Automatic annotation (TrEMBL), chain A:
It holds the Pfam family Acyl-CoA_dh_1. Residues 230-370 form the Acyl-CoA dehydrogenase/oxidase C-terminal domain. Residues 6-106 form the Acyl-CoA dehydrogenase/oxidase N-terminal domain. Keywords: FAD, Flavoprotein, Oxidoreductase. The keyword Lipid biosynthesis does not apply. This is Acyl-CoA dehydrogenase. It comes from Actinomadura craniellae.
């Protein structure tokens, strides 16, 4: 994705690749049984030691990045792990950390939780979607009603990534003062987690019910009226998604190109047919464009540019749509084998289809672009 | 050599003293007569020459200033807001004069480049032929020996602004016994030479910037040959390089910023505001799609230019930008039509209005994937040179051109 990487960044990527391949090959992912945990805590803790939950956290809170540009390093990591369709809570943990770091110093103190997440001792996820609803993070139906010493949470969240393994849930809630976020232990009384079917074989999601869950005022993250914090979390989520999808596309495209050289029909390789060569040329162009827009979004989010929201939506809109066009054409170029269980392509297609759907669809992001342009 | 800063200050003072300020940037009227624009361009070029600011990167011996790209950039920056001879940038200076500088004889360089810099002459290209545009090396315009000169016969087309030019670089076949790339010669031909018939081509949007030419026994002297006889492909390749470079904004011979006044396309942003459909979420999504694609085009262009610069990507990768540019331009046209809705049918009263201009622009939609090399050729380049896929079978490869089939 980045055109030139420093030796430290290359090492960061190589170490991630090593740890991923040691534990979770694509065959292992393909053969995971229903209900089997997608990853184990030990493995994630080792990843945390390599910096998987540290990049966007300042050093004084236990974090740190190899290049000094944490968002870009996080994108590099998402690329490396995405190429191998890694399981694990990379996105939910880093998105929660984005919120905690963003609000650090403005509300109740969550230093201990941040440090535990960075160390991989604790796992957190963002409880933001609600059943039957599309992306609308600042208009939650779940309510936080002020009560003695804190709040009472009532409502249902779903599509909560790794809900079954999370220790902490960052919950968006409606309060009388506007949308707010609360950091709630998954073990709190009144919290019920039930698994949800997941399209992506290496990911797991859950529905989380909050029935009169009592939290203290200290559970709040930042203050009510958290729209800007939620925006930052969204931007981090989109950068991770687009980076991992770019890597998925690199893999699928390379695999399909190789197939075109190896597969012969009518005595000549598929790669010699102009009708197919031209489709490869289109895909190669879109692939470059996906990398370009993802890199631009990562840079803007890193720099906190005034146009970071815009560039994140540009990337999600473009990569979200183009990735599916590219992957489905990779399937077509493979022929029937491309839709078999044994082939890797569906694993990539599952990841890309899921990623384009969550944290705003390409359509949602296009509407956002019109809003941001003050049309 | 004068420092860039000193040159910039001198240019700033001279421009303020001598060059007319640019008028507003309202779109030009829909007219097919731009004669006055060309007269004006020559006048402006003569003013630059008189002031000592013409041909900044051309060598002094050919009438230029012999300065660097940085000097030219400084002048261009200072020239913003002033009227400049923009129609002369492409193809006269950036493609034709640049090619002559690379490949021409001393006499050609001194006479033609000098006259162009003085604002006395305009240059154009006679490359494409009616028989086909992508297979440039297969041209069939012929040049036959005639004493100490040559006789040209054939036809050319898609010559940009040839009607306003004095000389054209004409690619012709001089040897039919050798494979196609090896029997070509480039000639410098006066556009008003006896035997040259020129027609302006009227495009579907009314613009008439392209020409077609017929050559009937047009005689040129030996001194008209650019480069070597039968080595015209080398010259044409330089032209194509300078063309791509200038399209990508990389030419040191372009002075001033912006494009000549042409009929501008209406963007989705302009039409959505003009037709007052900003509240409709269906329309807002289309606007968002346009904004995303426009940004992606810029981002990809930046990335590929950087990567080619550092060697991370093969130079053939510029075809990626070419392909994406066509896709982006066509998406813009498509979205504008959808946003304009029923408005494209009848315009505003007796005038096309904004919605009518959207519709007229839509008629020219495919020009983005045709002009400057078709996207089919770009796809060949990407698949063959970037992805290493087998080249297309070419029955004309390594075959004497006279044996190559030219039609059914």
């Amino acid at each position: 994705m980045e055109l030139g990487l420093s030796p430290d960044q290359k090492l960061f990527q190589a170490s991630a690749k090593g740890l991923l391949e040691k534990e979770y090959s694509l065959d292992r992912i393909r053969d995971m049984a229903d209900g089997e945990p997608r990853w184990n805590r030990d493995w994630w803790r080792q990843g945390a030691e390599l910096g998987w939950a540290a990049a966007i956290v300042p050093e004084e809170l236990g974090g740190g990045s190899v290049s000094g540009e944490g968002v870009r390093d996080l994108a590099l990591l998402a690329e490396e792990l995405g190429a191998g369709l890694a399981p694990g809570p990379l996105l939910p943990v880093n998105v929660v950390l984005a919120g905690l770091v963003e609000t650090h110093g403005t509300g109740p103190d969550h230093t201990a939780e941040i440090e535990a997440l960075v160390a991989g001792e604790s796992v957190a996820s963002w409880a933001v979607y609600e059943p039957g609803r599309e992306w609308s993070p600042v208009a939650p139906g779940l309510t936080a009603t002020p009560a003695a010493g804190g709040f009472v949470l009532d409502g249902v969240k779903d599509r909560v990534e790794d809900a079954g393994q999370a220790d902490l849930l960052l919950v968006t809630a409606a309060t009388p003062e506007g949308v707010a976020q609360f950091l709630v232990p998954a073990s709190a009384v009144g919290v019920t987690v039930s698994p949800q079917w997941s399209l992506d074989l290496s990911r797991s999601f859950g529905e989380v019910r909050f029935d009169g869950v009592q939290v203290t005022a200290d559970a709040m993250v930042g203050v009510a009226g958290a729209d800007q914090v939620i925006e930052r979390q969204l931007q981090i989520a989109v950068v991770i998604q687009c980076a991992e999808v770019c890597a998925v596309l690199d893999r699928a495209f390379a695999m399909t190109r190789q197939w075109a050289f190896d597969r012969y029909s009518f005595g000549r390789p598929l790669a010699s047919y102009q009708a197919l060569k031209h489709r490869f040329a289109d895909m190669r162009t879109w692939l470059e464009a996906c990398h370009a827009t993802t890199q631009a979004a990562a840079a803007a989010v890193q720099e906190r540019s005034p146009n970071a929201a815009e560039l994140a939506s540009v990337a999600k809109s473009y990569v979200g749509d183009r990735s599916l066009v590219i992957l489905q054409d990779c399937v077509q170029l493979h022929g029937g084998i491309g839709v078999t269980w044994e082939h890797d392509l569906h694993l990539y297609l599952r990841r890309a289809t899921l990623d384009q759907a969550l944290y705003g669809t390409p359509q949602d992001h296009r509407l956002r672009l019109a809003d941001l342009a003050a049309i | 050599m004068e420092s860039v800063e000193s040159f910039r200050l001198r240019a700033r003072a001279w421009l303020a003293e001598n060059m007319p300020r640019q008028a507003g940037d309202e779109p030009p009227p829909l007219s097919d007569d731009d004669t006055s624009d060309w007269i004006r361009a020559r006048e402006l070029q003569r003013m630059l020459y008189a002031g000592g600011f013409a041909g900044i990167c051309f060598p002094q011996e050919y009438g230029g200033l012999g300065l660097t790209r940085a000097h030219q950039q400084a002048f261009t920056e200072e020239s913003i807001g002033y009227e400049m001879p923009l129609p002369l940038n492409i193809p006269t200076f950036a493609i034709c004069a640049a090619t002559l500088l690379d490949m021409g004889t001393e006499e050609q360089k001194r006479d033609r480049i000098g006259a162009a810099i003085r604002g006395e002459e305009v240059l154009c290209q006679f490359l494409s032929e009616p028989r086909g545009g992508s297979d440039l090396a297969g041209v069939t315009t012929r040049a036959d020996r005639d004493g100490d000169g040559w006789i040209l016969n054939g036809a050319k087309t898609w010559s940009t602004s040839a009607y306003a030019a004095d000389w054209g670089l004409c690619l012709a076949r001089t040897n039919w016994e050798v494979p196609k790339h090896r029997g070509l010669t480039m000639f410098l031909v006066p556009t008003k030479a006896p035997g040259v018939t020129m027609n302006r081509i009227r495009m579907v949007n009314g613009v008439r910037e392209f020409c077609e030419e017929f050559f009937d026994d047009v005689w040129v002297p030996d001194s008209a040959v650019v480069g070597e006889v039968d080595a015209g492909w080398t010259v044409a390749s330089r032209q194509l390089f300078h063309e791509r470079n200038s399209m990508g904004g990389g030419s040191p011979y372009v002075s001033g910023r912006g494009h000549p006044r042409t009929v501008p396309k209406v963007t989705p942003l302009e039409i959505v505001r003009a037709c007052g459909r900003t509240e409709d979420p269906r329309i807002r999504e289309l606007v968002g799609e346009y904004l995303a694609m426009a940004a992606v085009q810029r981002q990809t262009s930046d990335r590929v230019t950087r990567a080619v610069g550092t060697g991370a990507l093969d130079p053939a990768a510029v075809s990626l930008i070419r392909l994406l540019h066509a896709e982006g331009a066509q998406l813009s046209d498509d979205l504008a039509v959808r946003i304009a809705g029923a408005g494209v049918a009848t315009g505003t009263g007796a005038e096309p209005g904004v919605a009518g201009r959207v519709a007229i622009g839509y008629l020219m939609r495919q020009s983005a994937s045709l002009g400057g090399g078709s996207t089919e050729m770009a796809r060949n380049v990407i698949s063959e040179r970037l992805l290493g896929m087998p080249r297309e079978a070419a029955p004309d490869r390594d075959v004497p051109f006279k044996q190559v089939k030219q039609g059914r």
